[in-house]
Design a protein that fits this description.
By secondary structure, this protein is α+β, with helices and mostly antiparallel strands. Helix content is 34%, strand content 32%. The strands form 2 sheets. Strands 3, 4, 5 and 6 form a 4-stranded antiparallel β-sheet that branches. The chain has a two-stranded antiparallel sheet with strand order 1-2.
Length: 152
C-alpha cells in the first residue's frame, strides 16, 4: 500500500537480506539468482501492537494500534503511533470468541494501514489528529515524504 500510494519501489524484508546485502530470487522452474542490493536510503519499521477491545452499550470497538518508525543514516525521521477504532454492533461479533472477532480486527488493521499509506503521500490534519497521539506527526510525515522524494 505504501509503495502504491507514494510511487516508491520498496525492497521487502527477507531473512537473508542482512547477510552481505544479497537477496535470493527463486523461481518455480528451479532457477535461483542472487541480487546485490544497494545501500539503504532509509529503513521502515511498522510495529503491530496489541489489539484493544472497547465496549459501549450496543457497540464494540476494535482498536488496531501500530508504531511507524523511519530511520535514515542521519536521523530518526519518524517515530509515531497510530490507531483505528471502527465500531460494530455487538451482535456482529458472533459468539464473542477471539476467532469470531478476527475478521473485525483484520478489517480494523487493514483500514489503518491503508489510510496511513495515504497520509504518507498527502497528510490530512483532521485524520492525523483523530488517529495519532504523536505530537508533530504532520512534520514527521512531511520529512518522510522528503526522504521518499530524494530516494526516487
Amino acid at each position: 500500500m505504501l509503495s502504491k500510494n507514494t510511487f516508491v519501489p520498496l525492497v521487502p524484508y527477507s531473512t537473508g537480506e542482512a547477510i552481505g546485502r544479497n537477496m535470493a530470487a527463486r523461481f518455480s522452474n528451479g532457477d535461483s539468482y542472487e541480487f546485490k542490493l544497494p545501500e539503504l536510503d532509509y529503513f521502515i519499521d511498522i510495529e503491530l501492537r496489541d489489539f484493544k477491545l472497547k465496549n459501549r452499550e450496543h457497540h464494540i470497538g476494535f482498536a488496531s494500534l501500530i508504531t511507524l518508525k523511519v530511520d535514515t543514516e542521519l536521523s530518526n525521521a519518524v517515530n509515531a503511533k497510530f490507531s483505528n477504532v471502527p465500531w460494530v454492533l455487538k451482535e456482529m461479533t458472533g459468539n464473542g470468541s477471539k476467532d469470531s472477532k478476527w475478521t473485525i480486527y483484520e478489517e480494523s488493521l487493514g483500514g489503518l494501514l491503508s489510510s496511513l499509506a495515504k497520509q504518507v503521500a498527502s497528510s490530512d490534519g483532521k485524520w492525523l489528529k483523530k488517529h495519532s497521539v504523536t505530537k508533530n506527526v504532520d512534520e514527521q510525515l512531511s520529512l518522510f515524504r522528503e526522504i521518499l522524494i530524494k530516494s526516487q
